[in-house]
Amino acid sequence: MIIDSKQFSFQVGEEKMRIERPGGINSPIWSLAWNPSKDEPVDVLCVADWGQNLSFYTLSGKQVGKERVLGFDPCCVSYFSKGEYILVGGSNKACLLYTREGVKLGTIGEQSSWVWCCAARPDSNFVAIGCQDGTIAYYQLIFSTVHGLYKERYAFRENMTDVIIQHLITEQKVRIKCRDLVKKIAIYKHRLAVQLPERIIIYELYSQDASDMHYRVREKINQRLECNLLVVCTNHIVLCQEKRLQCLNFVGNKEREWQMDSLIRYIKVVGGPASREGLLLGLKNGQV
Q1: Domain coordinates in residue numbering, the chain
Q2: Which of 75, 90, 109, 242 is at a distance of 20 to 30 A from 50, taking alpha carbons?
Q3: At residue 200, does pLDDT exceed 80?
């Protein structure tokens, strides 16, 4: 190592691999991080550049998955929760949470200046970020449970973007990879509804066999629908928005609407013929 007042240079070992990336000098690399997960079959390097992209590579230089567009200049990238998630911050003046595949999940915290560093406390859900104006912020992340139950079938969210359906009697499990943030899950008989940020996907069982665990896509409602609660029926979904209930068919058209006197805290499909199912509601004022 050589150090003087005009230069600083060092060399440790020899070059083993060079990854040539598209963009060249127009996409300078600003942050790197290795995925610490022991479950990955290969070592994965996460690369954040000022071409506003997030990409992933193996030791051999092969790209893993798709390159993700961030929409801002990233200044820091760090893995979180044993490699399940990624923290990214930069010119967006915020720290964002992504899956290990680079799917955006949400915002951890917003600041008034660029975020230059972010790190998670080991083996915990606490995240610290440092900003250009000298601000240091500390956040605790709480991952809520998203699930649905119908008789012996239990569906729940895993890793924020996957849905696991478990048969409680046979203990069979099936995983549906949604590749987007799973916000709500509803299950009823042979139907399964999964709400994502920009759409709701309706799944159905391949057969009427009580032990069948194979689901296929029935319909997609390509609308951004906000709701507090969601249930699915044979041919409809019902959205709860504070005091209001909306019944939509699988095309996304509203067929009926109800207005309650108090906030709706609980909703359940209690059965009935197709397209005429009954709903049980629990209101904040104690009414059922």
Answers
A1: 19-140, 147-283
A2: 109
A3: yes
CA angle 101–51–131, rounded 5-degree value:
80
Distances (CA, A) of 241 to 223, 246, 262: 15, 8, 11
List residues bridging with 221 in a β-sheet: 200
Q: Is 186 exposed, middle or buried (0-12, 13-18, 19+ CB in 10 A)?
A: buried
pTM assigned to the model = 0.83
- pLDDT for the residue numbered 3: 33
Query: Distance between CA 204 and CA 61 in Å, rounded?
Result: 40
How high is the pLDDT of residue 12? 61
Mean pLDDT within 112-131: 93
pLDDT interval class at 210 (50, 70, 90): confident
Which has the higher per-residue pLDDT, 155 or 26?
155
C-alpha 145/C-alpha 234 separation (Å) is: 25
Identify whether the C-beta of residue 192 lies closer than 8 Å to the C-beta of residue 211.
no
Which CATH architecture fits 147-283? Answer: Beta Barrel (2.40)
Contacts of 282 (CB under 8 A, 6+ apart): 264, 265, 266, 267, 288
Total residue count of the chain as it appears in this document? 288
DSSP letter string, 167-204 = ETTT--EEEEE-SS---EEEEETTEEEEEETTEEEEEE
- CATH class (in words) of the domain with range 19-140: mainly beta
Measured distance CA(51)–CA(159) in Å, rounded: 28
Distance between CA atoms of 39 and 33, rounded to whole angstroms? 17
Tens digits of residue pLDDT in 180-194: 999 999 999 999 999
